[in-house]
């Protein structure tokens, strides 16, 4: 994932540098607005959660379930109202949902439902997570109070994003017995998308000042396919670093 994010950022920087050489030769009364910094790069860290979890599963969630998103955006200000703009882009979103004394058998081929198994009285991993990532196309309707000085501007953005799943896996580290004594430092990783929807539609909102903003994202689509588990939906709350 880091290689993909680096490639997206590098391509954008090269494109922006080339475009600036062209636009600086054009005379336009709105030059400062059109060439303004437009939050073309957005990096987000988040606290991730699953809505509609059954109590038998939510009682085994633990720790900080974290997420990371990275997007390259094209920002188009409205000529008649430069405080407003429309943005569209491309990027990736990833989530890590952590559990304690629970197993999620995403590779199961003996049941139609995704098995979440409590491991309170048997061996288990000290650290265990369910992770998933998406390639996403985000759009935003944006407001900036000071568009010619974006780093000193109050910002608001409302939008959405559609994504296609790239990877789903579970990962466990340090196998322990029922009394939490270490058996060995063995790690296990399993990959399968069998139980998971291939697309995701989410709504987003951002509010902030300058290069920092807080954001929220809520998935309108269920994480799992119909009939294989609870109608769980992913939501994120976190911090956005944006610029360029």
Kindly describe this structure.
Helices cover 12% and strands 53% of the residues. The longest helix is centred in the first third of the chain and has 22 residues, at 2-23. It has helices spanning 2-23, 31-34, 55-58, and strands at residues 41-51, 66-77, 84-99, 102-104, 116-118, 124-144, 154-176, 182-191, 199-209, 212-219, 233-243. It is built from 3 helices and 11 strands, in the order ααβαββββββββββ. The chain has one domain (2-243). With 244 residues, the protein is mostly beta strands. The strands form 2 sheets. It has an 8-stranded antiparallel β-barrel. Strands 4-5 form a two-stranded antiparallel ribbon. The two termini are 22 Å apart.
Globular, elongated, flat, extended or rod-shaped: what is the shape?
elongated
Low-confidence stretches: 2-27
Structural Rg: 21 Å
Approximately how much helix is present in the residues?
10-25%
Specify the structural class: mainly beta
Instruction: Tell me the count of domains.
Output: 1
**Cα distance, first to last residue?**
22 Å
């Amino acid at each position: 994932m880091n290689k993909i994010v680096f490639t997206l950022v590098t391509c954008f920087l090269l494109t922006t540098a080339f475009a600036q050489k062209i636009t600086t030769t054009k005379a336009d009364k709105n030059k400062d607005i059109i060439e303004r910094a437009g939050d073309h790069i957005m990096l987000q860290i988040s606290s991730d959660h699953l809505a509609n979890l059954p109590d038998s599963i939510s009682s085994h969630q633990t720790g900080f379930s974290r997420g990371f998103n990275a997007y390259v955006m094209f920002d188009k200000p409205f000529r008649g109202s430069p405080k407003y703009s429309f943005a569209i882009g491309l990027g990736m979103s990833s989530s890590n949902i952590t559990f304690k004394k629970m197993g999620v058998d995403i590779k199961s081929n003996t049941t139609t439902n995704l098995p979440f198994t409590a491991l309170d009285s048997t061996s288990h991993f000290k650290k265990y997570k369910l992770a998933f990532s998406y390639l996403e196309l985000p759009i935003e309707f944006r407001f900036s109070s000071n568009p010619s000085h974006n780093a000193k501007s109050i910002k608001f953005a409302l939008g959405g994003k559609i994504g296609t799943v790239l990877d789903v896996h579970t990962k466990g580290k340090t196998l322990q017995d029922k009394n939490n004594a270490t058996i060995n430092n063995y790690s296990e990783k399993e990959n399968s998308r069998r139980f998971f929807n291939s697309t995701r539609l989410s709504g987003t909102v951002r509010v902030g000042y300058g290069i920092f903003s807080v954001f929220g994202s809520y998935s309108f689509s269920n994480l799992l396919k119909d009939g294989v588990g609870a109608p769980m939906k992913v939501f994120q709350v976190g911090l956005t670093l944006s610029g360029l």
